[in-house]
Amino acid sequence: xxxxxxxxxxxxxxxxxxxxxxxxxxxxxxxxxxxxxxxxxxxxxxxxxxxxxxxxxxxxxxxxxxxxxxxxxxxxxxxxxxxxxxxxxxxxxxxxxxxxxxxxxxxxxxxxxxxxxxxxxxxxxxxxxxxxxxxxxxxxxxxxxxxxxxxxxxxxxxxxxxxxxxxxxxxxxxxx
Length: 176
Prior knowledge:
The chain has 176 residues and is mainly α. It is 55% helix and 0% strand. Helix 1 (10-20) runs parallel beside helix 6.
């Protein structure tokens, strides 16, 4: 497979997960699902740095540490946004959801680990146990075409579910 370091295809799975588990923190989930690729972007900008495209941040330990950082960052971002007074000339009051630290962490872990899972099927240089010389058991179990296709299908299904939920919200129906 190619060496594209940042792929928005990860958002397909994240959107479906968000649509199914609506209580997840979308900021933690969506940032978590792509932040691992900062490593690849860095390695392309600085090719002599020695940083691999799919190194530590694409391991299980790296996904855990990134999940912690994104989750904590998401929690404090929500706290900061909550302090801003949102007023609209809308008869319906607009309130932002309150996310606990636990929910922000869970959402970001789902994002970072789903990123590693998807990439594990595709990239030879990805090591799930970064320091240990253990082969990646998921490599080539699913072709890259199928992985990308599933990501697109997840995006479409997730968008349809969320659009239905939004429509139900606007019409005061029960959320599906």
